[in-house]
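Lab notebook: predicted structure, single chain.

Context: the supervisor wants predicted structures on file for every construct in the current expression panel, including those that have not yet been purified. This is the next one on the list. No modifications to the sequence; it matches the entry in the shared construct table.
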Amino acid sequence: MRILFAAVLASLIAGAVQAASCGNTSSGFEAWKSDFARTAQQNGVGQAGLTALAQAQYSSRTIAADRNQKSFTYSLDKFMEIRGANVIASQGRKRKASNPQFYASLERIYGVPSGVLITIHGMETGFGNFMGDTQVVSAIVTLAYDCRRSDFFIPHAIGALKLVDQGSITLSTQGARHGELGHTQFLPGNALAYGVDGNGDGRVDFYDLSDAMASTANYLRQKGWQPGQGYQPGEPNYEVLKQWNAATVYQQTIAIVAAKIDS
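Prediction complete. Output recorded below exactly as produced.
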């Protein structure tokens, strides 16, 4: 396997500067895009990415989702119930048993146990059954424009446009409401930085299971995963789960479900 996207998210953050004023409604979106195009070009975005930026639409559905993230405020038991933790554990064990060599190879290369990768896959997209219904580029560009977390999403918007340049996604590629893409819902900047060609076909496709799972394992390893160490609360790798998702209930659920799959 080889990492195709060598750019790191930190360099995007350092290079991406705020363009025109952010906004909380669609009224200034087109003017902001025109100004942001200069920032994108200065950060290495090519013509295909700039064309996608020009054609991106303000996503009201994305803004609505961003303002309504209630599930992370639930208790652990409620969160696990809503996310179907028991079903993920049951199906996850079957998935591991049906393709043991695939998951063993990922653990051998990256040191991340099968249960963790399978749990993330199940929690993010129901094992690929639903990978989103929103245009990735439009969603992430909308969030870069929106004032609430503009600084956080600008590097991911630039990442998405570079993915368009590289042919990894197009303007029509569908993902989650916050612009996450593929089987395990990578934000575009992370996809650019940590994407791995898992099946050896010369490209990174986050809608291909092999590429997505290898990229997920690579992300965790690069974030500090220690092979052979535990991932339960208080153990070294539990801290790395925080890099995948900042919500405590999410981290706890990964640890609980993954342990059931790995047992």
